[in-house]
């Protein structure tokens, strides 16, 4: 049994343990403790996904060209910012991939910010969640490259421009690409875990000014890490879809 079970995780384990065990059996896995298969980072991810879906379903019904609300303004700012970054980093093909960039940014942002709410934890402070996001980004930019060039031409990029250098370039490129999801995972996990622990320490020491300052810092780090993750994903997509001039 996990050391600290959040109230939402407890509800899932008390009422939906059978669902989790069934899902695990579909992929040939088994929970360490079948009576408590749900973990905090899984229930927090489900909560984040539910919040995003409910929020956007509510926002969609209230979209207005003439009288946009404050929430619409906020998300228009985020959309315009991400679109500008995609145009700048990826180029003319950036907007075709904007839905993925926006999804990964908002999911990580909401996950990072969830830890500020009492009774919840940021799922990104567990390495499995950043690793999942990193693998998704890894698969997406390779898919984008294959779609843009075709499988043969895309794989040929790994050999470099000079055929004689292929035996050297291919191992270097493979190691470089395999290191990208590791880098994305460690960066996001380390920053969110450290921020969470620092905030908890100062909350235990004081309950007013000092924790508020670190919670403000936590919000800043949450936005920064979501942006860095999305930006690096754009950079990887730009490299994958770029057309060589020679």
- Could you tell me the strand content as a percent range? under 5%
What letter string, H or E per element, gives the SSE order?
HHHHHHHHH
Whole-number average pLDDT? 89
Give the tally of β-strands.
0
Instruction: Summarize the biggest pleated sheet.
Output: none
**Straight-line distance between termini:** 58 Å
Describe the global form.
globular
SS element count, helices? 9
What is the share of helical residues?
over 70%
Low-confidence stretches: none
> Can you tell me the number of structural domains?
2
What structural class do you assign from the helix and strand content? Answer: mainly alpha
How large is the radius of gyration? 21 Å
Q: Can you walk me through this structure?
A:
The structure is a single chain. The protein is an all-alpha fold. The chain starts with 6 loop residues before the first helix and ends in a 5-residue tail after the last helix. 72% of the residues lie in helices and 0% in strands. The protein is built from nine helices and no strands. The chain has helices spanning 7-15, 17-26, 40-60, 70-89, 98-114, 128-149, 151-156, 166-205, 209-241. The model has no long low-confidence stretch (mean pLDDT 89). α5 packs antiparallel against α9 (209-241), α6 (128-149) runs parallel beside α9 (209-241) and α8 runs antiparallel to α9. The chain folds into two domains: 1-38, no CATH class; 43-241, no CATH class.
């Amino acid at each position: 049994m996990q050391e600290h079970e959040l109230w939402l995780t407890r509800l899932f384990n008390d009422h939906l343990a059978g669902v989790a065990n069934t899902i695990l059996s579909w992929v040939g896995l088994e929970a360490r403790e079948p009576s408590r298969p749900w973990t905090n980072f899984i229930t927090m991810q489900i909560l984040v996904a539910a919040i995003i879906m409910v929020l956007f379903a509510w926002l969609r019904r209230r979209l207005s060209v003439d009288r946009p609300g404050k929430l619409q303004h906020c998300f228009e700012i985020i959309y315009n910012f991400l679109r500008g970054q995609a145009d700048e980093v990826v180029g003319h093909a950036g907007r075709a991939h904007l839905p993925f960039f926006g999804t990964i940014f908002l999911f990580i942002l909401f996950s990072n910010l969830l830890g500020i709410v009492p009774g919840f934890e940021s799922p990104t402070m567990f390495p499995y969640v950043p690793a999942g996001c990193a693998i998704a980004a890894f698969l997406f930019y390779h898919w984008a490259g294959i779609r843009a060039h075709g499988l043969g031409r895309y794989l040929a990029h790994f050999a470099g421009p000079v055929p004689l250098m292929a035996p050297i370039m291919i191992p270097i490129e493979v190691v470089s690409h395999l290191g990208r999801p590791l880098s994305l995972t460690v960066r996001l996990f380390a920053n969110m875990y450290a921020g969470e622990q620092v905030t908890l320490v100062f909350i235990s020491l004081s309950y007013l000014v000092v924790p508020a300052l670190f919670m403000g810092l936590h919000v800043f780090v949450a936005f920064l890490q979501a942006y860095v993750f999305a930006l690096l994903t754009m950079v990887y997509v730009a490299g994958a879809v770029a057309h060589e001039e020679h």
